[in-house]
């Protein structure tokens, strides 16, 4: 897991800023596909020594997307909560992050019981409350691990992540280089693991996602575990994940936030672009 840089701190002074939203709208889908195809994973011949799992940190205040359980307004955006594909875990040891270039990443330190778990997508309709929505992006994804309410949130750590080493407003984040984020069981990393590095395999799963930005992919028909993957917000980056714990400290939720929801007003350029897009759409509708 990589440490968030100053530009990726919890305060996120520049995260999701209007210029990056405008640019990402046109460029990131192309970049994500190009990187995913070009950057096939290469396994190192020298094994790195195993990293220890440090004690989990104190409770944290999670991003807005983590706490949403129903549709809601966040700033100028409208966020819709919808069901995603079920995640099937054979061992309960979870790998998360980029499922194409990071398929051999280490598992999270905390494990869960094997089983089938529902997922929920938090989809942001950008600027919808201004009446000039310009885009839709996945703001976050949640794996529902239990029915009890969440009492507290803690960072989801991987081996080597030491919470005591973090500076103010810093976090540990898993990286995305191919525009996709995934959850899957450690057992898939065995004989079928390298199939996760094949962009074509994931692309074939997308038509079956029924119009949602998420899909489930099974590397082998004879294996129960699958990969639930989703478009990662504005594209590449390092994104934090959190365990939602009940009063007994048991994990009942695992969420990832994609740094989409922001409170700051949009800049004039993006607002103008939104108005022009809306005017063109209205003109097209009248001409039909």
Task: Report on this structure.
With 288 residues, the chain is of the alpha+beta class. It has one domain (12-41, 64-287). The protein has helices spanning 18-38, 64-67, 199-205, 268-287; strands at 2-3, 72-74, 77-89, 94-97, 115-126, 135-144, 152-155, 172-176, 180-185, 214-217, 227-231, 237-239, 241-245, 251-257. Strands 2-3-5-6-14-13-7 form a seven-stranded antiparallel beta sheet. A hairpin with an 8-residue loop joins strand 5 (115-126) and strand 6.
SSE order: EHHEEEEEEEEHEEEEEH
Average pLDDT metric: 74
Q: Beta fraction of the residues?
A: 25-35%
- How many beta strands in the DSSP annotation? 14
Number of domains: 1
C-alpha termini separation: 51 Å
* Biggest beta sheet attributes: 7 strands, antiparallel
Helicity level: 10-25%
Shape: globular
Q: What are the low-pLDDT stretches, counting only 5+ consecutive residues below 50?
A: 3-46, 207-211, 263-272
| Strands in their spatial order, largest beta sheet | 2-3-5-6-14-13-7
Q: Give the count of helical stretches.
A: 4
Structural class: alpha+beta
Any idea what the radius of gyration is? 19 Å
SSE blueprint:
Blueprint: E1 2-3, H1 18-38, H2 64-67, E2 72-74, E3 77-89, E4 94-97, E5 115-126, E6 135-144, E7 152-155, E8 172-176, E9 180-185, H3 199-205, E10 214-217, E11 227-231, E12 237-239, E13 241-245, E14 251-257, H4 268-287
Antiparallel strand pairs: 1-8, 2-3, 3-5, 4-9, 5-6, 6-14, 7-13, 8-12, 9-11, 10-11, 13-14
Which structural traits does this protein have?
single chain; 288 residues; alpha+beta; seven-stranded antiparallel β-sheet; 4 helices
